[in-house]
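Can anyone check this?
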Amino acid sequence: MDSRERLLTVLNKGIPDHVPVAPDTSNMIPAKMTGKPFWQLYLYQDPPIWKAYLDCVKYFGFDSLMDGYVSIEFDDLYLDEPDESRPVIVYQDEERIVTQNLEQANGKNFWSPWVNVYYRADPPTYGVDPLSIRLPKEPSGYQEVEGVRVWPSGGELLSLVKKEMGNHGLVGVFCGTSKLLNCEADIYEYYDDPDVFRNRRDKALAFYERKFHRLMGLNAKPDFICVGGSGTLIHQTPEIFRELGLPIVKKITALSKAFGIPSHVHSCGPEKLLVKIMAEETDLTVIDPLEIPPMGDCCLKELKRDYGERLVLKGNLHTTEIMLNGTVADVIEASKKAIDDAKEGGGFILSTGDQCGRDTPYENIFAMIETAKTYGKY
């Protein structure tokens, strides 16, 4: 089997030739492999992170479940009103570039209250209070962002990405979310006025349903639909998730099932309860990263026992203790344990807890992949 066949077999409840293996290398490792400052990828799209990721997949040779790393949007379909502002550079040195959105009207400048920080050797930080990094709320000067590479959008972009992926794996597209609270300010706002978020939920439901049908009308359709959100049970209580996020997940996973397309949730952090809800109350296909303590609360063996017949499980080697700081022998041992815990009957993809760190030794990634191919045979 090639990677595409192997993953499709597992997502359709079949038995592949061996356990698929898909370490999470979504951002840091691909960016580092380009040899360029990270801002070249995230700000200047040279190359975009999705292209760097695909190059990473081909270099290591793993089974890619590309869960939403490329944004597929449509110019005439949007959740919020189009933003008329543009990013400009308000600070730059050898280690970072700071941008702030500027809108100009009637001869006046209107500045966003937040800035985005692009680093030389780390992924960017979005939505930063400029005062927290010793920058003024309104800069005295700025530079235009010039030299951004232009790439296709919408269905044309999805066709390009799927062609680039080939048989190395599957391409997923975000259409939905498991969370509407994403930061501390959202939490305060929810408790001050929950109706604001109930209205956002209803608006999001309608938008994602429209987007789903638009995606299904494309010649090159997504291989699966992504409907998760990092930290689903960190920024919201289970009760808030049930009120705001779960209705969206239920709607999109039901549509996906009706159209015969797999659905996927990524939600790092505590996830044990989320797995139970997804298995018992939605039509979800696959969930990751199933992190172990202290970052998460999952036991892969228990989840396989309780929910392995209803969900494909993807996880869950520790990204710092094992992948970043462990030896090759540690990676092999941890990979074998995960395979032993979840291989039986199929329905398992060997992966990491969450994104592998920038300086993860390449030999550890190769060891994980080789263990799945040999020890993970069916």
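Reply from J.R.: I decoded it. The chain has a mean pLDDT of 97.
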